[in-house]
Write a structure and sequence with these properties.
single chain; 162 residues; alpha/beta; Glucose Oxidase, domain 1; ten-stranded mixed beta sheet; two-stranded antiparallel sheet; 4 helices
Length: 162
């Protein structure tokens, strides 16, 4: 699916939120969209791994890692797991690692930055809660649309022009 966030902004200006441009796209997919599942965690990737091991067809994982760039919440192993389970994309308000490997996967991966240090895996955090960062409040079951230009959020699915 080709997403053009600029076009969607023009069409749905009054019903969407635009996420502040703090993210870099590290994944191999140029654009992606889906219903969000949220995780709130800090320097712990245990819940991320657990959620990515479940079916993600039509979904985007949105991780609120507190903006920390001290420990990576994603690496090639859990991104490969996401691809195997059908996730459309991952947005990480935090850091990732192994970016050279991640760009080879056919999935969108937006993150704040990269660092080679892995986060712990104790499954500490919250699943399916409202999170707020980048000027937007994300609610579980909202919809995100992302491409190289940016990320937008909608409470309802948007009709994508062909």
């Amino acid at each position: 699916m080709d997403i053009n966030t600029s076009e969607l902004c023009d069409m749905y200006a009054d019903s969407i939120d635009v996420v502040a441009p703090i993210f870099t796209n590290y994944g191999g997919a140029f654009s992606y969209a889906g219903e969000i599942t949220t995780i709130k965690c800090f320097e712990d990737r245990g819940l991320v791994d657990k959620v990515l091991a479940s079916s993600g067809v039509g979904k985007v994982l949105l991780i609120d890692g507190g903006g920390s760039t001290r420990r990576a919440l994603l690496d090639a192993d859990n991104v490969q797991l996401a691809v195997e389970n059908g996730w459309e994309g991952i947005i990480c308000y935090g850091a990732i690692r192994e970016v050279d490997l991640i760009e080879e996967f056919d999935i969108g991966v937006h993150a704040v930055n990269a660092i080679p240090v892995a986060a712990e895996s104790r499954e500490i955090g919250d699943l399916d809660v409202a999170v707020n960062f980048a000027g937007v409040t994300f609610l579980p079951e909202d919809f995100v649309y992302a491409d190289g230009t940016g990320i937008i959020l909608s409470p309802e699915p948007l009709e994508i022009p062909e």
